[in-house]
Amino acid sequence: MARILITSALPYINGIKHLGNLVGSQLPSDVYARFMRATGHEVLLICATDEHGTPAELAAAKAGKPVDAFCAEMWQVQKDIADGFRISFDHFGRSSSPQNHALTQHFAGRLADAGLIDEVMEKQVYSLADGRYLPDRYIEGTCPNCGYENARGDQCENCTKQLDPTDLVNPRSAISGSTDLEVRETKHLYLRQSKMRAPLTEWIESKTDWPILTTSIAKKWLNDGDGLQDRGITRDLDWGISVKRGAEEWPGMEGKVFYVWFDAPIEYIAATAEWADATGGNWERWWRTDKGADDVRYVQFMAKDNIPFHTLSFPATLMGSGEPWKLVDYIKGFNWLLYEGGKFSTSQGRGVFMDQALEILPSDYWRWWLVSNVPESSDSDFTWESFQAGINKDLADVLGNFVSRVTKFCRSKWGEVVPVGGAYGAAEAAVIAEISERLDSYQVHMQAIELRKACQELRAIWVAGNEYLQHAAPWSSFKTDPEAAAATVRFALNLIRLYAVLSEPVIPDAAQTMRAALGAENAEWPDDVATYLDGLTAGAGISVPDVMFAKIDDTAREALEARFSGGN
């Protein structure tokens, strides 16, 4: 079986993320990792908090805490939330780790040796009110490209155009709001990305299986000249990885740190090293092609605003080092998740954030709706009506209702054991044929990371069981042919066992409930549906689970709509 390295885009440390952040990287990476593990592959799922740069300093200052203490606290908060959503990271690291400090400085030294770093005197905005330089995100203003009034000094999040702070119209300090700014000269290091255009173009052109979203953004940046400009990789900040050339000091760079977008992707490697240090594993076999990583399939998950850095800047760092690092094989990019037709907003209280979601409903409710509506080919819109319908119709009426009806009827007629007697016939054969076909399709979509289509097939597999049960009607046949009814219920109990295994990548808690009800904790992924659906031993014990999915009524939905509308 294959070895699969999976990385999820690093969440910023500066606060709790909303559902759009969850569905843009962490959740789909987990679904894919769970599926690949279940089907027998060796998987390493890596993520970390992105702790350097302006967002961390600003958030810490706002909280009135030292930045290192703030980051440690928020790492735990974000890890707990990821655990709450059952994100199965093999390691959730920190970009402030000693491993990332060493690796980032190592790459800088290698790039300098290769002639890919220049020392440049650049003009940078200085705030007289704040008494300091204002790098990238410390400056806000109007985007010269699209007119968005809250663009940052490194990138406009509205049109995704990469910017320099001096490009902004009507700039202001993000710290104090002051417009009393002036431009001064300061020395910084620049990565000469422009020299990497040819190898990057050849590499990206070879990725013919990548999603259109990923390749279109990568090629746009390659072809319009914006993305491969030589870019600064250092900043005038207090918090970050100090600028060194490997282990050596870098004259003239005292007091400066590496730019967060230089060190953050390197944390994928560093987090793997953190994992190795914690577990005794070997990180090099996942990342160094001279140490066995040439056999690894490396898949990245991210929202579309992160694609340029992962298709250009990070590969330029890896290639430019001249060392045998593993490059990504597949980048799964996602569009935006909107909230009731607009953007999520922390300041306005608009939309649901990850901690709030877990307080409202169990994680499986959110996982199901988000994965089945994941913004793959276009933006998706979260509405409470759509969410209510997805939970009530898919989870409660289809899956939950099937499990409840089968187990309760079994208990009422045979006790809490798998019924003995009766044989499968044409009706069961028809279900086996349909599910076998749909399982093939489900697996193909999962392997291709087409998650919406995979969920459609999974739901159809659940529906097949409901339709079978409705037509077989064991509550009626029990009166005239109890053995036929026993066969029906035994087959239906086996369907629950199958549903538990197939559903686990998407709704792991419900899967565990189904497994436990049938004593099937060790059930593995099915090789043959017909054999699998005859796997429970007649007479084996079962239990009746509590209600798996409670419906959301209109009153509750309306209250949630009002609570998260941002109107308060």
Structure summary, number of beta strands: 18
CA-atom Rg in angstroms? 27 Å
Give the percentage of residues in beta strands.
5-15%
How many H/I helical runs?
19
Strand order of the largest sheet: 3-2-1-15-16
The amount of helix comes to 40-55%
How does the helix and strand content classify structurally? alpha/beta
| Shape, per Cα inertia axes | elongated
The poorly predicted ranges are: none
Main sheet overview: 5 strands, parallel
Query: pLDDT average, as an integer?
Result: 95
Distance between the termini: 53 Å
SSE topology sketch:
Layout: E1 3-8, H1 19-38, E2 42-49, H2 54-63, H3 67-84, E3 91-94, H4 98-113, E4 117-127, E5 132-133, E6 139-142, E7 151-152, E8 169-173, E9 181-191, H5 197-205, H6 212-223, E10 231-232, E11 234-235, E12 244-245, E13 248-249, E14 257-258, H7 260-279, H8 284-287, E15 296-303, H9 307-320, E16 330-334, E17 337-339, H10 354-360, H11 363-372, E18 380-382, H12 384-414, H13 426-447, H14 451-472, H15 474-480, H16 482-503, H17 508-518, H18 529-532, H19 554-563
Parallel strand pairs: 1-2, 1-15, 2-3, 15-16, 17-18
Antiparallel strand pairs: 4-5, 4-9, 6-7, 6-8, 9-10, 11-14, 12-13
List keywords for this structure.
alpha/beta, 4-stranded antiparallel sheet, elongated, 5-stranded parallel sheet, 19 helices, 568 residues
